[in-house]
Amino acid sequence: MIVVALLLMAFSIAVRWSGIGANLSVPEEPFQIEVLNGTGEPGVARLVTMKLRKMGIDVLIEGNARHFDYRESVLVDRKGNPELMKKLSRKLGVSSVVTQIQERPRVDATLIIGWDRGRLRLQR
What we know:
about 20% strand, about 120 residues, 3 helices, Alpha-Beta Plaits
């Protein structure tokens, strides 16, 4: 019994020290977003959608925002998932994050593209 416990401890330490454990991370939950053009400039939502898809982000919906005077891009949390919003805001370089939880959301988040779109991180 003691031998088994010692072997398990040794294995655990070896995995930690070798760095193998770093590659055994928990897979991330799938999520979907919508991309809305908040500038009125034709094609902005399509361009951003294509770049996000190349980055591996699942864009379900693209279209226009209700108005076109967004100076700053905004990430809207639709399901109440602050961890996902932190991850997305860091990855995309969006500093403005708001929560507007919907009763039956079709997406996890909405990205409204503003006139600051040149500052967004849209590379792999």
